[in-house]
Design a protein that fits this description.
Elements (H helix, E strand, L loop, with lengths): L4 E8 L5 H10 L7 E6 L7 H6 L4 E5 L4 H4 L2 H14 L3 E5 L7 H8 L7 E3 L3 E4 L7 H4 L2 H9 L2 E4 L7 H13 L6 E4 L42 E7 L2 E9 L2 E3 L1 H11 L3 E8 L2 E8 L2 E6 L5 E8 L5 H9 L2 E4 L1
Parallel strand pairs: 1-4, 1-5, 1-6, 2-3, 2-4, 6-7, 7-8
Antiparallel strand pairs: 9-10, 10-15, 11-16, 12-13, 12-15, 13-14
The structure holds guanosine-5'-triphosphate and magnesium ion (MG).
Length: 324
């Protein structure tokens, strides 16, 4: 049997740059090693896995959950399958930014994985600008992520001013339990050296106050059908769509919709009139990149307010330009 697999948990609030950071780590993978990624998303549609697959790792995606639900059986089943199939030299885990990490940590360090995984320092990415938002500071998920972390990393420093970075440093020096290290970065550029060592296994008491939505059962996507999936919990709402790859959406119209709608978060791997695109929007900043074709288009909106899924679906359907 291989020695325990070095495992890194990348925590951080919704949209802080966790998937970007894991993609950056994958670029530093020694070519002879196999790395695996387990990614858990709040939304039901599952998009981060598709983005990471492009980086050449074994990826397993557990969509649609809060931590308490997903850290149970679906996470273990996914993790076991990843370990069996990939036999990875390293494992990277991204839990949803809207979840409590305590249960994930308990699962990873529990009986089942004791001799299988070796948990390295837990990283938590923070957008320093978020420290100005009372809603984020008061959020139990954010507090638990920070408490669980061994290392805090300020990400998105390119869009922070000096005062925001100074505020981050002062805050990071005060948090309890004290952190092993605090770093600044941008575009999720993490140093492989930060992954070395062992986690102090900081424990947090997670109140069980949040909702446990039932996982949606998804019907298969057919040529004609659009699958619409919703989720809610932790004060956030998601609407996701899966569409057959034959459907082409007008790119400009889609970006206009994303810009106007004021979503907290929007992600998509989607076939548009300009080609296959990944669209990633957080706090109003939208990134669009060309990508390779996938079996389905997937889109996901997350908002702090309830959304009218039918109205949004109609708006998307009005953007259909073409079919094969
Ligand atoms: N300006 C700036 N944008 C960044 C940086 N890092 C990530 N982003 C952008 O922030 C958006 C969200 O990044 P993700 O990596 O998807 O964030 P995430 O934490 O995985 O998001 P969730 O899984 O939805 O919680 C994307 O549009 C990224 O391109 C950064 O350092 N600076
Ligand atoms: Mg992500």
């Amino acid at each position: 049997m291989k020695s325990p697999i070095p495992t890194t948990l990348v925590l951080g609030f919704l949209g802080v740059g966790k998937t970007t950071a894991i993609a950056e780590l994958l670029k530093q993978k020694p070519s002879h090693e196999v790395w695996a990624v387990l990614v858990n998303e709040f939304g039901e549609v599952g998009i981060d896995g598709a983005l990471l697959q492009e980086q050449g790792a074994f990826v397993h995606e557990v969509p649609g959950g809060c931590m308490c639900c997903v850290a149970g059986l679906p996470m273990q089943v996914g993790l076991n399958r990843l370990i069996r199939q990939a036999r990875p030299d390293r494992l990277l885990i991204e839990p949803t930014g809207l979840g409590h990490p305590a249960q994930v940590l308990a699962t990873l360090t529990g009986e089942h994985y004791r001799n299988v995984l070796e948990l390295g320092p837990v990283l938590c990415l923070v957008d320093p600008r978020r420290l100005e938002e009372p809603r984020v500071l008061a959020s139990v998920q954010f507090q638990d992520q920070v408490a669980t972390a061994d290392i805090l990393v300020a990400n998105k420093t390119d869009v922070c001013d000096a005062a925001q970075l100074a505020h981050f440093d002062a805050w990071a020096a005060r948090v309890s339990p004290a952190k092993r290290a605090v770093f600044h970065t941008r575009e999720g550029r993490l140093d492989l050296a930060w992954l070395e060592g062992a986690s102090a296994l900081n424990r947090v008491a997670t109140p069980e106050s949040h909702l446990h939505p039932q996982p949606a059962t998804a019907a298969p996507v057919t040529q004609a059908s659009w699958q619409v999936l919703t989720n809610e919990g932790q004060g956030y709402f998601s609407v996701g769509w899966r569409l057959p790859a034959s459907i082409v959406l007008d790119e400009r119209g889609l970006l206009t919709l994303v810009g106007e709608a004021g979503f907290a978060r929007f992600k998509a791997v989607v076939r548009t009139s300009a080609g296959w695109r990944t669209i990633n929007s957080s706090d109003g900043a939208v990134t669009v990149r060309a990508t390779t074709a996938t079996a389905l288009s997937r889109l996901e909106a997350i908002s702090a307010h309830p959304m009218d899924a039918d109205a949004l679906t109609r708006r998307l359907q009005n953007l259909v330009r073409d079919r094969d």
